[in-house]
Amino acid sequence: MQEPVLPALPWHGVLFVGVIPIDHGSIGHHQSQRPVLRSFVVSSAMEDRNSKQFSNITIDSTVQNNASEIDFDETPTPSITSIVTNEGYTPSSVSMRTISDIEHRYQLVGNINIINQMEVNQDVLCICYTETYDFLAAGLSDGNVKFYKVSSGENTLILCDAEIMLNPSPVTAVKHRPVRRTHPITHTVIATYANGCVKCWHYPTAQCLYTIRERRQTLGLAYHPQLPKFVTVGDDTILYLYDEETKTRERVFRGSDTPDVMDGHKSRVFSACFNPKSAYELISGGWDDTIQFWDTRQAHSFRFISGVHICGDGLDISRNGKEILTCSWQRNDPLQLWDYGSGKLITTVEPDSYSSLLYVGKYVTNIYIACGGCDVNLFRIVDLRSHSTIAMIRNLRGGVYSLDVGPLESKYSKRILPKFAFCAGTTIFEVDAQPD
């Protein structure tokens, strides 16, 4: 396998460069071992494979009450540009428009409209809607988490405590617990930071409820779809499973020390995703070009797929739990669908009009997916039946590092697709896109 070209990551300078290429077949299976079932608190020691030294993970649940740690952005809300001109060139018989702002022009293809555009003074690395879709939370390269009111685009508050002020570090992920009938709405988000912090924020009061400090660069997280648990990923090849209610670390997922067995990651891990139809299974991906399959009842992975270079939140599993979506930072075959049960490739979706090195992708429905990346900087929605792009924004000022799926406008609406939010450079977009 040819060694992959490393991407220019948004928090470049914080991460140390290094890839260990893996040369295996497309699908790997390992003989599963009977797991040792035990729970342990987060302060237990773990071995760092890179430094070969022991370090601790700590949880601090002291609530920060200092009002001076809450900042409010008093800058005027940016206006939404609505200058639309028709272009003569129309690729694939789909309408194209050019949106102009003062310094930049970007193109809209298909039935897509920008309904909110929020300018930020730092690079935006990750975003998510809050549980009730009232706000968009944006994690920035300077360590701040900014909240924007969806109805107006106004920045209402900034989440940053004394620890982040003293040691600023890029926010690598921000997510909330999935909304279920059995899950009360908590008005909280969890943010991960490149300095190893994992912070739970209660945003109505701007209080940090607890902090987990991992001795590594924490690069992402994924919530369990049914239980109050989440997993974090990072630069040390390891996944940590936490219980949000007991604030304990329940499990460490890593490869074994057997050199000829591929039962865990060999390099940085950027993405993880739980199977929505399983209480125990999840997948993860990163720089070692593998997708690892895990069972929370055992420490090592039980299957892997190779040839998929993940550099962001580029993994998702369909709602029926049967298919995997991979969005890869690679020129060849960046968008693929895999069978979850066997790990076999179902199809490769060709990039029709424009190719892009993908950072992020999500299922919108069982028929449509949304994805984004760089070179070309674009956000697009793909129909999986025809393998065609139904809507796209390209020529953005930066790569699309993160996206989230919003709500449908109303239950009486004839709209098929919900709203979307994504970030590109220092801009957050909220868009409405529908099939023609």
From TrEMBL:
Signal peptide: none
InterPro entries named in the record: WD40/YVTN_repeat-like_dom_sf, WD40_repeat_CS, WD40_repeat_dom_sf, WD40_rpt
Record keyword Repeat present: yes
SMART domains reported for this sequence: WD40
WD repeats: 262-304
UniProt keyword annotations, A-Z: Repeat, WD repeat
Domain of life: Eukaryota
Chain segments annotated as transmembrane: none
Protein name: Uncharacterized protein
Taxonomic source organism: Trachymyrmex cornetzi
Higher taxonomy: Eukaryota, Metazoa, Ecdysozoa, Arthropoda, Hexapoda
